[in-house]
């Protein structure tokens, strides 16, 4: 199994956490998103992922792209430990938390979007950073309320074991801190993030621990 990824990509970070939680060994293949104009744009990588995005997972000659699809694939292939609860309504709740990050927060701070704001619309760095902080803070505040509404609260976003929601939360908070977002809007999420990062599966997936981190 090969994971094509970049150490600082939050989508890649998610998949690394999931692989670690599942105890699935994999080959780490770095795709540097900035060097030489971005290795994701090379013909060799475009042949793997036509979108030119990371991560991509290669398993037995099959390729899976998009972090949520990759993690769902891992969940189906390696069902233990489960990343989703058994009850259908509970599963939907956990998925909605993950999708709140994947669809409502992350796309608005994606490198391609920020590049368009800077290079095409000619916004200043201060304006771009204000854009990031606005959307990330808004999304995290909403996620905080969703987590607080869970009827059986535990150490993590949903219950007493890490789930798909936590896998998406931790990389997003990593990005929020990078961009100087105000985290006072989500104290519960900050506590959950701390509990997650104390676990080896999360700690070992951290950007600074990846083999390409020194190239950042």
Task: Describe the structure in your own words.
By secondary structure, this protein is of the alpha+beta class. The protein has two domains: 80 residues, 3-Layer(aba) Sandwich (Glutaredoxin), CATH 3.40.30.10; 115 residues, Up-down Bundle (Glutathione S-transferase Yfyf (Class Pi), Chain A, domain 2), CATH 1.20.1050.10. It is built from nine helices and four strands; from the N terminus they run E-H-E-H-E-E-H-H-H-H-H-H-H. It has a four-stranded mixed sheet, with helices on one face. A hairpin with a 2-residue loop joins strand 3 and strand 4. Helix 1 packs parallel to helix 3 and helix 1 packs antiparallel against helix 7. The chain is globular, with a radius of gyration of 17 Å.
Brief summary:
With 216 residues, the chain is an alpha+beta fold.
What is the makeup of the main sheet? 4 strands, mixed
Q: Could you tell me the mean pLDDT?
A: 93
Tell me the total number of β-strands: 4
What's the CATH topology label of the largest domain?
Glutathione S-transferase Yfyf (Class Pi), Chain A, domain 2
Beta-strand share of residues: 5-15%
Question: DSSP helix count?
Answer: 9
Helix % is 40-55%
Order of helices and strands: EHEHEEHHHHHHH
Structure class: alpha+beta
